[in-house]
Amino acid sequence: MMREVRGNILWIVLPAMLAMTLLLVACGGGGDRGEEAVPEGGEVLTGGEGDPDAEEVVFWIPSIFNEVDTESITGIVESFNEENPDIRVTMVRVPGDETDTAKLMTAVRGGVGPDVYLLDRFTVAQRAADGVLQDLGGFMEEGLADQYLEFAWSEVMFDGRPYALPFDTDVRALFYRKDLLEEAGVDPAELDPGNGLITIERLNEIAARVDETDNSGAYTRMGMVPWIDQGWHYTWGFVYGGEFFDPQSCEVTPTHPGVVEGFRFMYDWAEEKDPARVQAFVDTYVPPDNPPSQHPLITGRVAMMVGVDAFISLIDRYAPDLDYGITYIPVPEEGQEPATWSGGWALVIPEGAEQPEAAYRFMEYMAGEEGQRVYVRETQHLPTLERLLDEDEIYAESHIFLKELLPISNNRPPLPVGAQYWDELTAAQEAVTLNRQHPEAALESVANRVQPRLEQFCPLEVG
Amino acid sequence: MSASEYVPARSGLAKRFRLNLSRKERRNLLLGLAFISPWIFGFLAFMVYPIYVSLRLSFSRYSGFGEPIWIGLENYRTLLGDGLFWQSLYNTLYYTALAVPMGVVASMIIALAMNQPVREVSIYRTILYLPSVLPIFALAFIFVWLMNPRYGLLNFILVQLGLPSINWLGDPAWAKFSIVLLAQLGAGQVALIYLAGLRAIPRDLYDAAKLDGAGVWRQFWHITLPLMTPVILYSVILGLTLGLQVFVQAYIMTEGGPNNSTLFYVYYLYQNGFQYSQMGYASAMAWVLFVISLILAMLVFRWSRRWVHYELS
């Protein structure tokens, strides 16, 4: 009798345990759309709750966006939701930056990705090559490409197909603190864009006059550190006339003489000021995750820096009384034309998106006239829609002359190894600014590391 | 009592590969399997299967999407010529070689302090254990401030002592060591295990030693330390495994810099897998790390025969 009962228990327990196991596993992958929209570490900024009958579009933006930009985009999403009651866009901030899209990749792979993602445009080709993005050709109306700036459109193309809608762009320029220059005995009028461009040699002289040290020899203020904020490899490379890619031979060209010159400029600068002391200065006043209100230009630790035009909106928010000006990035030789470069972001639909049609309608709005106009006015980025360049009333006064630089502005080659190329150039720049490697050697290793990975895509049709 | 006594005489599992169990034994086996079925299922689905897939991917080119392309040993060949692979391996071994022994010493000191026969010891235990409760990620953010070259507490102390200040995280010569220092804030975790080990040492050994005139130092050297060796071995193996996987600190504080001096192995693996979409290459890196960990663990076990004492007698 006893034995029979225990036998029965076994046959009840065994299937029950198995069923529970399967149930637990199934629950892990399930859940409704509302929860899926918010991954771990994600934060809903707008949308979320609302009309249950509306189609829900989940839109992720990476956390690298500053508060001013994020608020503006949130506003754009809210206006879209108001004007389109049949669609509800839920905007979620997820961890990520320009080249780190791990959250997107793992979510898409796991089948819980968003419908729309805001991606740094110069990496669109790379993500398209990876197979993460949907080809948007089917959604696009005839002639759409012609409405956007040519370079911006070339960045959304891979292998002859469009994978994104361009959102914003920008230009890089020299920001300078008039009060700090005056204190150092430099007339800030010299830097006024109305008075033309200054040379890099002159920049060196002005910067040296601002430098201050304490008793121990540590810098407490510097005229400039050429590689903070937007003073990148691409910045100085373009300033010295460098080219980063040769479409004919399908080769990355980090050892192009202009790029090497740009790196040489940073190397010499560091050498003259003592690389370890400059590094200590940067680590003190520009620590990781430094908030914009503690930006060294705002706190007066540096008098000049290369920044992106949208920095104007951060000054407006965090230091509205700052006594500053904006001018062209200095040039190597007198009489040269100014040089700068432009980037920007783009909206994409990842593979596996549940609502691609509704997602595209939202993208058309955000990357269209309505969205871009708001974004330019509120954040002082530049639009990628050509016709908005003529609407002077949406630009801050100081922004207008920078807008005129767009036609001559450079852009990074949109390569399917773009993110890695950027990171390798950044590593080389670090080696050079620490004077650990000479520009030629550092850049040669960039070529050696990136080229083999590019080769699998050659020949390459860029743009 | 030895383990063999538990094996039913009739099973003959190893010899015949065929179960010959009584009804009771079979029922017990099934019941046991039923009870651990959630674990079995999880183990197969979330451990065995991914490990198998990563091995296959290590012989492929795979972006994480689409179909993997079989390329044989290509990923492993590329690894050998990849300077950053060697650099990251060096950084990781450097970190492990310093962090593990320092961790043993730090944990031992904390455990001895926690073991003092004073009334308020529970307060001390809480304080010493507290940093281990914080997520490493929060500690990393705090450390960035403690290590600020100008305003940080560490440099303040150095300057007060008349020493030159150090750019802890910004100087390639110091950055790795700074992360080793940070790791010691987690010593409380291991110290708890050490504390349990210390409490398990019979008091009469100390009493006997005292009668023979042994001082505190001799007691520690000849009783405490030898009897703690099994626990130390455990913590060394654990530290080795975790040390080779160091990631978060570099990800948050230095992004692998300056000049790749904190580019740790798993961080470089992460970059390849998730930033550059080279899942195949990243899988190959994971397997190489697995083999290295295995070899190191085996060497430690072999070496431990010389210094670990399992028996009291």
Tags for this model:
heterodimer; A: 463 residues; alpha+beta; D-Maltodextrin-Binding Protein, domain 2; six-stranded mixed beta sheet; five-stranded mixed beta sheet; 16% strand; disordered N terminus; B: 313 residues; mainly alpha; MetI-like fold; two-stranded antiparallel ribbon; 14 helices; 2 strands; 1% strand; Bact_solute-bd_prot1 (chain A); ABC transporter substrate-binding protein (chain A)
Name of the top-level CATH class of the largest domain in chain A:
Alpha Beta
Q: How far is it from the N-terminal to the C-terminal residue of chain A, by CA?
A: 81 Å
Could you tell me the mean pLDDT of chain A?
91
Mean pLDDT across the residues of chain B is 89
- Strand fraction of chain A: 15-25%
Quickly give the CATH architecture of the largest domain in chain B. Orthogonal Bundle
The CATH homologous superfamily of the largest domain in chain A is named Periplasmic binding protein-like II
Report the portion of residues of chain B in β strands: under 5%
CATH topology of the largest domain in chain A: D-Maltodextrin-Binding Protein, domain 2
Which strands sit side by side, in order, in the main sheet of chain A?
1-3-2-4-17-7
